[in-house]
Amino acid sequence: MNLKIKYLYALCISFMFTAQSAYSQSTPKQNDTLPSIKISQNQHYFVTENEKPFFWLGDTGWLTLGKLNRADVEKYFQDRKEKGFNVVQVMVLHTLNVKNAYGNAALTNEDISKPLVTPGNDFNNPAEYDYWDHVDYVLDVAQKNGIYLAMVPVWGTNVSKGDKVSKEQAQKYAKFLANRYQDRTNIIWLNGGDTHGNEFTTIWNIIGSTLKIHNPRQLITFHPFGRTDSSDNFHNSPWLDFNMFQSGHRRYDQDTLPKSFKEDNYKFVQRDLSLKPIKPTLDGEPSYEGIPHGLHDTLQPKWTDNDVRRYAYWSVFAGAAGYTYGHNAVMQMFKKGDKGAYGNKELWTDAINAPGAKQMIYVKKLMLEFPYLERVPDQSMIANQGEKYDYLIATKGKKYALIYTYTGRKIVLNMGKIAGEKVTATWYNPRNGQKTKIGVIDNKGTKEFQPSGSKKDGNDWVLILESK
């Protein structure tokens, strides 16, 4: 442990013995609280506190807390439950002057160390509860729908632009969050927020350490800037439980950054899982469905359901512990009268039914259909791996293997990588979850498998092999 981290730990521990915070605590209203999420024994995946596999299927609802009223909240979380999502990523403070749908400000004088808390939280009367009471309400609704909130304490631009957040303010704010939400089991913390981890690192370490010291059962990671990873700066930080990368929104030809993985998000996973100590990792922000290639030029083509599927299967088959989907309209909760970002004109209430949002459940179902915690990536199975959109990727357990093609190109396999003299081969359609049996084949030598349809982007398939 380096001296900086030791100092931060000592700082946070000292605050544990200070006077108790005057802020009220947020206690769950339902008796049936969700089980806490923890890291699996093999350090690669998530499990519930009773050791059941937890596949992170996230949605990006960044502005949920600031823009949705109670009816909107009920509609949104019920929809996400029906579509299989179990995590929603949100900003607690998008800006320092943020207000919720009822006009309640989060802070006094835009001071992060002074949350504007008023007595009472009568959810039957919005005029009598504050910004933080509304956060409590959203947590309750999420819990009712079996969903965990992955909460960004303060969005990165509030720290990186100017001197709006000092070390002292950051520590007081993190202590407030830790005290208020210490009994919540459906909270995961995303420190940072679309920001560079090598900038204002001390602030992020203070927030992360304070949250972890006071609430060790709540998992914490860092949500980084595009085409970067939490492991770049915080992999060895004691407060960081798992890694998160942002594979971003640019095409191969739009990315001129040196040493960038570009669209190859599976490379983040491969790198992270080679680090010590081993920590789970996942893509917390791939290209959003409905957003322009490269973000800012609205005349560019938009990313589609084909692309969000590709990012999902590439990263998960590489060994990621889950995946976060996003849609341009939903991430900003776009309503009539809004001045939309990134050229969006679609209402969030329509966009929740986008094709990609409906298809994400199939990757989750597929992964949980087989023994999950024994799963490992294995590219040695593939004799014709390819590159860019033609890249083939494989994951396997002891008695099963899954191989993904984004373009429907021929798959050539080196057999004998799973148990059994013979295997049953099946095609799985990521667009609708349907299976088509191929037959029983010998589990030796080299075998070729040709998906149906022409070779093109978005004609994606998963080949399933199961030991006989």
Layout: helices, strands, pairs:
Blueprint: H1 3-16, E1 37-39, E2 46-48, E3 53-54, E4 56-60, H2 64-67, H3 70-82, E5 87-91, E6 107-108, E7 111-115, H4 131-144, E8 148-152, H5 157-160, H6 167-180, E9 187-195, H7 201-214, E10 220-224, E11 228-229, H8 231-234, E12 243-246, H9 266-272, E13 281-283, H10 305-317, E14 322-325, H11 328-331, H12 348-351, H13 355-369, E15 376-377, E16 392-396, E17 400-405, E18 411-414, E19 422-428, E20 435-442, E21 446-449, E22 461-467
Parallel strand pairs: 4-5, 4-14, 5-8, 8-9, 9-10, 12-13
Antiparallel strand pairs: 1-2, 2-3, 6-7, 11-12, 15-16, 16-17, 17-22, 18-21, 19-20, 19-22
Which keywords apply here?
six-stranded antiparallel sheet; 468 residues; 13 helices; TIM Barrel; Immunoglobulin-like; six-stranded parallel sheet; alpha/beta; 21% strand; GH; single chain; Apiosidase-like_cat_dom; disordered N terminus
Percent of sequence in beta strands: 15-25%
Query: Considering the protein shown, what is the CATH homologous superfamily of the largest domain?
Result: Glycosidases
From the 3D coordinates, which CATH architecture of the largest domain would you assign?
A: Alpha-Beta Barrel
**Named CATH topology of the largest domain:** TIM Barrel
